[in-house]
Write a structure and sequence with these properties.
The protein has helices spanning 2-27, 37-68, 80-104. With 109 residues, it is mainly α. It is elongated, with a radius of gyration of 15 Å.
Length: 109
């Protein structure tokens, strides 16, 4: 059960916590909150390995697209600038998740 918890529950919880903080900051007028999802991915990759990092990245991107990025009601797609921000967030989260997961492995020197 610990593999399931570390691989799926920790990423879900950390991504939802990052969303909660982001929504609170957005309510106070902050405009750049995407960086809050990077520590969630890092922590998930540390505890859940690459699977945890990828799950947290996917959850973070979906939560950002659903709740953080403003959209007009006519289309589902975000603006080009917001789409680029989400793509950059995705790349950073995947990279940091892989590094954090690899740093957790023991060194075989």
């Amino acid at each position: 059960m610990s593999g399931w918890v570390h691989g799926f529950v920790v990423p879900l919880g950390s991504s939802l916590a990052a969303l909660g903080v982001a929504m609170a900051l957005l309510a106070f007028g902050a405009s750049q909150v995407l960086f809050l999802f990077v520590p969630a991915v890092m922590m998930s990759a540390w505890y859940g390995g690459r699977t945890g990092g990828f799950v947290a990245t996917a959850m973070s991107v979906l939560l950002v697209l659903a709740f953080v990025i403003p959209r007009d009601n006519a289309t589902w797609l975000p603006s080009p600038g917001d789409a680029l921000s989400v793509l950059i967030l995705t790349g950073i989260c995947i990279s940091i998740g892989m590094v954090a997961a690899d740093r957790r492995r023991p060194c075989r020197c």
